[in-house]
Please model this.
Amino acid sequence: MTQRLTAAKGSIAVNAALLALKAGVSIATGSIGLLAETLHSGLDLVASTLAYVGIKKAMEPADDNHPYGHYRFENLSALAQVILIGLTALFVFWETAQHLLKPEPIQQAPLGIAVLLVSLACAWATAKWLDKVAKVEHSAALESDAYHFTTDTYASIAVLIGIAASMAGFPMADPMAAIAVGVVMLHGSVKLAKKSLLVLTDSVPDSDCLRQIQKLLKKDARVTSFHKLRARQSGARVFVDLHMRLAPRTSLDAAHLISHEVKAAIIKALPEVEDVHIHLEPEPKAETRMKKTRAEGKTKMEKAAGKKKK
Model:
């Protein structure tokens, strides 16, 4: 978790530096493409801050109001980022429409290109770093943040092409590059929104998680069968429920111990699993025998009661 917070802080620092750099150069050059990139970086700074807040909140222990923890604050922060991306993309489209009607030449284009090259290198390196930490920590917030930086690299390439084309005598290329930036932002927002909403609506986590749990259960000779294996995700954590059957005549103490050992084995194999709720059941044959025994006992009691009445 400390590594996750460190990555979030690093993301904020990189975005703040890129925002300041792009803002100054976009004013100096008058490039609408660079203005779109500046807005994109401003959004990224807000997104990184939201990611940090979400991760920080998710670290808080469970309480009476949140007995399952605060993990979904990460997903809520990702959803807030999506809304900001969409709104900023719409603003970019509106601003670009004005410049398409009255395209203006770019001033100090070489300076703009130099800044974009620096931004491209920083965004690419930061995206790789955040993505690596996100996979290790299973962090939805950092994964979203990494995607922001990835879209930054694509956007910077689009604006570079636009400025270069404008220098070559095609002034319409700059606003067209800004449109490309807006499209990239909208595409990213849809992708992130889908992922966040799936978690917030209790969708099943990736199928590999359930497959690994199934393998562990099948390997354990004490588990005769299992069913109703379910899992749901909350932030970076996964909660698992399952019904497990044991051999007939397994004592309550032994069944309790086996369930705890199975739970520990699942959590050890899958570090992202927060808790495993196991419902123990008898095997169907044993269950049938128990019902038969109860029915026979009930019949005997009824006969005994009838004799007493006589």
Observations:
- The first strand starts at residue 223 and ends at 234.
- The CA atoms of residues 154 and 163 lie 15 Å apart.
